[in-house]
Every structure is written in C-alpha cells, then in structure tokens.
Amino acid sequence: MAREPVGSSHALAFGVLGMAAYMASPRPVEMLTLAHAYGQAGDAERVALIAVGDGMLATWTGTAFDVYYFFNLATLLIFAILMFRTPVFRRSTAIAGVIAAVLMAVPSNFGLVGTVFALLSLVPWAVFAVLVAGDLARLVTPKEAVAATASGRDG
C-alpha cells in the first residue's frame, strides 16, 4: 500500500514530461510567419517556403510528439493499474484506462495503423473519463444524500 504514492508520482512525472514534450512540438507562430511570408512571396520563394513548412510539420509529428505519446501512455497505464488497488475506483474504470492505454501504444503519426489506433483509443478514453468523474463524485457526495436518493427511487 505504501508504494501507491511512488507510483502516482511516477505517473505524474511521465505526464508532466509528456506534456512538456508535446508543447515543444507544435510550431504555430513559425507557421503563421511562414504563411504571411508565403502570401507576399514570388513563385520561387513560395517553393522554398513550402519546403520549410513541410519541415515544420515533420517537426510537429516527430520525436517530441512521439515522446509525448509514449509518456502519456505510461501515465495512463500506471494510473489505471493503481486504480485496481484502491476502493475509490471501480474495476470497470481501471479496465477502461488499461484498454485506452494499450490502444495508445501506436502513436497517431504511424501511418494508417496509428490513425486507427488513435481513433479507437478515444472510445475507452471517453468511457474512462466519465467513469473517473463518477468515481470521484462519489467521494464528495455525502452518504446521507446517496441513501436518501436511493430510498426515493425505491418508493
């Protein structure tokens, strides 16, 4: 039982590092600058600007993006596994998290297979998010209110 805070800390660290990697991957300001330059460029310059833009897009879906993807897979997987060990979360919540994490094992930029896995991962991810919200809401709902609601439904 004492290892859960360590596991949670590891999951949180993976999540923070994953988001930091993701924030380093998009290039919105650079792309906007290229778009303005493209609008004012001649034909020869436009060819060069398109090549630079393609490079920017490759950077966005490159190494930093993959690091983000795998670190957030690790985050979700660790949290889901830890959920099996606590009475706070239902088993179905943890299972949905594990399924979403497994489907995140192939990053979305890995061609058609990656796109399919990414889209499929959204279904258990959405279920997981809803179940987590419900499990956490039960923590803050007074037991008297739950009992009163349950008895009101029975009558």
UniProtKB/TrEMBL annotation:
Q: Which positions, given as ranges, span the membrane?
A: 7-24, 67-85, 116-134
Q: Its domain of life?
A: Bacteria
Q: Which UniProt keywords apply?
A: Membrane, Transmembrane, Transmembrane helix
> Membrane: present as a keyword of the record?
yes
- Which named protein is this? DUF4386 family protein
Which species is this record about? Agromyces indicus
